[in-house]
């Protein structure tokens, strides 16, 4: 198999993750529980069996930047398996069940299934790329531009009228954490887009009614 193909995500392929999860210890986490704290040393990987987790950075003032959210058969914590400190915080954003896998167990699994090392490497590369894009966005793109990018990225394919609902419901606070800005700023921009006929809120879900303008 070509290296590029091996590093690419395989839709619907969870066999290795399921097998790895079976070797871990299942644990329950309440909503709001902090599983991983940035800067701490860790040697465990968490495979989500049920619920959702959020990886984020936070500064001393409490300002947060969401790096990603993860659902069933996704995993977090692999960035510190080299023995280094945790690179981000991870919390449960809803009641969640995870299989906790130790570094020794993961290395043993890779030894028995070396093809999984390429899958893990591909995931690390994609996460590094996303982190770079996120840093670039915060540094070089204004808040409105980041909001447009987030909405377009989370929108489902258009229906027969060209309208696109977001794949999940996000509060204004959650959007602010993705965009590294205040909740008030997000609320104002969304209200402006709604008044302009670009978006609508239906049953607490945002719909994109037409292409969003590049500038506002």
Automatic annotation (TrEMBL):
Residues 141-212 form the HTH crp-type domain. Transmembrane segments: none annotated. Residues 29-127 form the Cyclic nucleotide-binding domain. CDD domains: CAP_ED. InterPro entries: cNMP-bd_CS, cNMP-bd_dom, cNMP-bd_dom_sf, Env_Response_Regulators, HTH_CRP, RmlC-like_jellyroll, WH-like_DNA-bd_sf, WH_DNA-bd_sf. PANTHER family: CRP FAMILY TRANSCRIPTIONAL REGULATORY PROTEIN, HTH-TYPE TRANSCRIPTIONAL REGULATOR ARCR. This is Crp/Fnr family transcriptional regulator. It comes from Hydrogenophaga aromaticivorans.
């Amino acid at each position: 198999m070509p290296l590029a193909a091996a590093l690419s995500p395989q839709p619907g392929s969870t066999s290795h993750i399921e097998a790895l999860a079976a070797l871990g210890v299942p644990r329950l986490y309440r909503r709001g529980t902090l599983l991983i704290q940035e800067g701490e040393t860790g040697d465990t990987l968490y495979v989500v069996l049920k619920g959702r987790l959020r990886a984020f950075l936070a500064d001393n003032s409490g300002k947060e930047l969401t790096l990603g959210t993860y659902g069933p058969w996704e995993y977090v914590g692999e960035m510190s398996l080299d023995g280094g400190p945790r690179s981000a915080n991870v919390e449960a954003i809803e009641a969640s069940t995870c299989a906790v896998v130790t570094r020794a167990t993961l290395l043993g699994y890779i030894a028995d299934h070396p093809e999984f090392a390429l899958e893990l490497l591909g995931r690390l590369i994609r996460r590094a790329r996303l982190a770079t894009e996120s840093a670039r966005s915060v540094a070089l793109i204004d808040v409105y531009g980041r909001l447009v990018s987030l909405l377009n990225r989370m929108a489902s394919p258009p229906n027969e009228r060209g309208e696109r609902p977001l794949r999940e419901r996000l509060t204004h606070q959650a959007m602010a954490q993705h965009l590294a800005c205040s909740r008030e700023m997000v609320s104002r921009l969304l209200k402006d887009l709604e008044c302009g006929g670009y978006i609508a809120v239906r049953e607490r879900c945002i719909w994109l009614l037409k292409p969003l303008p590049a500038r506002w």
